[in-house]
Amino acid sequence: MKTTDYLGLDTGNTKKVSDKLQNLLADFQVYYTNLRGFHWNVKGRQFYRLHNEFENLYDEVADQIDEIAERILMLGETPLHNFSDYLKKNEVKESGVVKSGDEAMKLVLDYLKIILAKERKIVELASEVNDEGTVDLITGYIASQEKTVWLIASYLS
Ligand SMILES: [Fe+2]
Q1: CA 53 to ligand 1 center in whole angstroms
Q2: pLDDT (tens digit, 9 = 90+) per residue, 117-155?
Q3: pTM of the predicted protein model
Q4: What percent of the chain has pLDDT over 70?
Q5: Gap from CA of 29 to ligand 1 centroid (Å)
Q6: Range of 97's domain?
Q7: d(CA 112, ligand 1 centre) in Å
Q8: Which of 55, 61, 76, 135 is the most buried (most CB within 10 A)?
Q9: What is the Å distance from ligand 1's center to 128 Cα?
Q10: Does residue 1 form part of some domain?
């Protein structure tokens, strides 16, 4: 039984959206792993605050990863789950060991810039094909990430 038989969406169009979501999933998985590295490896006088803040960020991203993967399933495709596949599709690159809180926060801004641009393209495509479910999901991420960008930019100023 296929969900796409019941959603009322054109399967050619859902495939286009799910392909973009696969790319976004790859970026989110690498972003998540980088955040865990920042949580573990950051050092210095701000350690407690930054250690906790990176945990808050990766907890949110973990939930979003699950939502993106399940959206891909709803659209009739199979989400990628191997890192070897993610590392062929990712635009957010793996970080090295980062000990400086400022450097880690600056990297988060760089990652969110990439992810926000990708999400805006997904919203545009999903809107064109009347895929409101994907529009709603990704629009919520954009609003939350824009707030994160504001908080980090303020922190670094
Ligand atoms: Fe921890």
Answers
A1: 11
A2: 999 999 999 999 999 999 999 999 999 999 999 999 999
A3: 0.96
A4: 100
A5: 17
A6: 10-156
A7: 22
A8: 61
A9: 41
A10: no
